[in-house]
Amino acid sequence: MEKKIKILGILILILASGCKKSSKPPESSLPETAIDIQVLTQNLSLPWELVWGPDNMIWMTERGGKVSRVNPSNGSLNVLITVPDVKSIGEGGLLGMALHPDFSSNPFVFLAYNYDKAGTYTEKIVRYTYNGTTLINPMVILDNIPAANNHNGARLLISPDLKLFISTGDAANQATAQSLNSRSGKILRINLDGTIPSDNPINGNPLWSYGHRNPQGLVYVNGKLYSSEHGPDKDDEINVIVKNRNYGWPSVNGFCNESAEQSFCNANNVAEPLKSWTPTIAVSGMDFYNNDAISQLKNSLILATLKDQTLYQLKLNSAGDGIEETKELFRGTYGRLRDVCVGADGKIYVATSNGSNDKIIVLKGK
Q1: What pLDDT, in 10s, does the model give residues 61-77?
Q2: Sheet holding 186-191: strands in order across?
Q3: Model pTM?
Q4: Of 229, 233, 248, 315, which cross-links 215 as Cys (Cβ 3.0–4.6 Å)?
Q5: Does residue 234 fall inside a structural domain?
């Protein structure tokens, strides 16, 4: 009997071993693509926005007022215009930029910047036309956005249905984030000619969501609008932006996890973030990566941080409503990081924000 049991045990081990060999290895065991990191160009002054253009060039704003095209193959830079009425104070100046998706037929460049409006520091959205050499025919499509020397938001994004989303900060006046009549502390949504879409939450109002402190990243992926938002001394956030939702500021930081916050959240339809960081890392620009060139980064938000000086991968779940994993791609090497742009070639371009000899860094698969 004992001999039969031993033989049976050996057979079980053999069968188990055979099943293990024939099973597919888990995806996580596959080798990751090695990443090469280099400086593409330098001697920049506070770059703020990087956009991959339809001409396969990197379009860039610098806070002092310059709009340039950067060649991704050799880093050469062509200044298109220095916007004359930009006023750069503190963290203000020339900030966000978006290009019309059908650029060959509609060569429109949308800029968000701060200027002096009869003695009041103000932000506006201006649509320029690219004539192949410079930017011409400025048209103001939204004005009277409060500005300050910090908390200006000012990231721009055009959705597939041709709506322009604009992030605005509280402009150092916290209470305005909860006011539906203020353009501060909001995600705004307008048509590309500056008119207000008929399906916005409030008739004739550009408001789309509210209760924001200082959102500086916007990405639209698979029908979802993601934002990154600076917290005060705690709770930087990654949010999914939903029409007419309240994101809590200044009464709520991050999740509704304190008693006073819970009361406010229940009474005010507050949307909680996908992720928060305490202490804060100063989240800024981000983009979405879904290219085979660096396969381990697929289905991820790529996030630049200022205080933390780190480039992060935020791996999304299949539904896009959660972050499965957070990884550092590099830390501390290049100082403060302001924005991220993913090229059609699968390379990742990152702008620093140090105020002296700023750079564009490129990450590519080896």
Answers
A1: 999 999 999 999 999 99
A2: 156-158, 163-167, 186-191, 207-210
A3: 0.91
A4: 229
A5: yes
